[in-house]
Amino acid sequence: MGLRAPGHIRAGFTRTTAAAFLCAALVCGAANANAQSQAGRPASDWEFRLTPYLWFAGFTGTVGAGGRTADIDAPFRDVFDELNFGAMVNFEARKNRFTTLVDGFYVSLTDEKSISIPSGLNLKANSKTFVLNPDVGFRLLGGDKASVDFLTGIRYWHIKNSLEIESEVLPGAPEVSGSKDWVDPVLGAQIGLKLPGRWRARLQGDAGGFGAGSDLTWQVVASLGYELSNKTAVNAGYRYLDVDYRSGDFRFDTALSGFLLGVSFRF
Q1: Nearest Cα to 51, choosing from 231, 207, 238, 206?
Q2: Looking at domain 15-266, which of 2.10.70.10, 2.40.128.90, 3.40.50.720, 3.40.50.2020 is its CATH number?
Q3: For residue 190, is pLDDT > 70?
Q4: Does the pTM of the predicted model rise above 0.70?
């Protein structure tokens, strides 16, 4: 874990390249899916799935408010030390070829580090993140072994950043904070696979923003599930969510990534 001094800007390969790679992978998956008639419930029935889950997400990137910026580096191994609170849930409703997906989560993370010059200073950064991601989808290909859904929707963000200097030599140092709300349009797809026995796999990805809200946001989710019964399944996987948003002196250029663990209830 580490928090570098204000003003540091991260470097790395471009997010546009990553988003393009993600979209290409999804298109290849769709081209190789097996298009067969789908068995299961009668076509007139709705099917619902509710999945509360835990996301053990590391948090890295640059946050800024009030003209100050700081790097947060809270990796997965420190998630329980840095996490103040977190809640996550996913809901899916499906009928015939149409589906509606809603994913939401809230996390509050704090990172702090001593600053050597001047001595006795601590810089504390806190970021509260709420994301709501509703999508609607249409099944392009469906079969007994594989399915592909096209997805479109929005990603709503509410972010509050606060930066505080704690010092014995400078008591009463002010806290700088700022909050922003914005909406990103997103396009994506999900691929479902039926594996031998009761095993299931899913790959979901999207990309969006494109300057309408953030400069770019993209994510990929891969999960493996085991059906305990016709109504209940356990799931484990990995999720990576990236966003680059800047507006005035507010900045949220971050990535959240880590393992997922959830239980699905179908009704």
Answers
A1: 231
A2: 2.40.128.90
A3: yes
A4: yes
